[in-house]
């Protein structure tokens, strides 16, 4: 009897723990997946319903799912592979428009060949579809992963290559591409015009610094040597007639010059012998596409002492 009771108690505890764990996981994971594999967005295909016709009967026929992320198969930036039964006639074309009505879906497209029996497939091995899905979800930047399955598919697409597909992809600052088939994973960041490998693109350059009115007249400010985009030290020696308001502003490099891919956040603290006990820090972005850049502004509510050295440390992500 004692063993039976013990077994029942253990079972109840395990059930409760499982329920709590499940609840915690649901509450803390707002996105369907931590990373997105492009190959998971490449499995869709649509059989032709009539010769040379690329608008299909049935609204849902053009909807697919990759890693629990629903997506519409077509876009005006996603090349489409017209896989003809006669492989010599297969080709890849980019739609000029997409069609989605109450009863139909498809694309407006201008093939070079006639197609009587065919399928429409991804012309990017799922890369553009994954990028589009991640961009639509918004939020913080996410990884789109290229694995060996993606490369195998990409090498089958006629008239192109995996490298060409990456170079032609249309992305944004919220989507980072990671190729895990290289000895060290290769990361591609959006420059505002195309994706470029971080080995040639990422520049971990320190932000520029400008003093505000709260630093007083003729202050001396500098970003300490060795500082980067990610972390560093700001030195501010106040001048005369210091007041409240903006003490200093950090302006980070633009995306086109290797800057952050999104606004993110910066944590700034007052360090050193003289410190501010009350100040606020705000992070924002300015510009668009390749001219996008991050700005961090520190505002103080008490005036600094004249000709006094202050130091701040920053950490950004």
Brief overview:
The chain is α+β, with helices and mostly antiparallel strands and 317 residues long. The protein is 18% helix and 34% strand. The strands form six sheets. The protein has a five-stranded mixed beta sheet with strand order 1-11-12-13-14.
Describe the structure.
It is a single chain. The chain folds into 2 domains: 36-201, no CATH class; 208-316, no CATH class. Helix content is 18%, strand content 34%. It contains 5 helices and 22 strands. The protein has a 5-stranded mixed sheet. A 4-stranded antiparallel sheet has the order 2-10-6-7, with no helix packed on it. The chain starts with a helix and ends with a strand. 32% of the residues are buried.
Task: Compile the SSE list and pairings.
Layout: H1 2-28, E1 36-37, E2 45-47, E3 55-57, E4 63-66, E5 69-72, E6 80-84, E7 91-93, E8 97-100, E9 104-108, E10 118-122, H2 127-137, E11 142-146, H3 148-154, H4 162-168, E12 175-179, E13 186-190, E14 195-197, H5 198-201, E15 208-211, E16 220-223, E17 231-237, E18 245-251, E19 266-271, E20 279-286, E21 293-300, E22 309-316
Parallel strand pairs: 1-11, 11-12
Antiparallel strand pairs: 2-10, 3-9, 4-5, 6-7, 6-10, 8-9, 12-13, 13-14, 15-18, 16-17, 17-22, 18-21, 19-22, 20-21
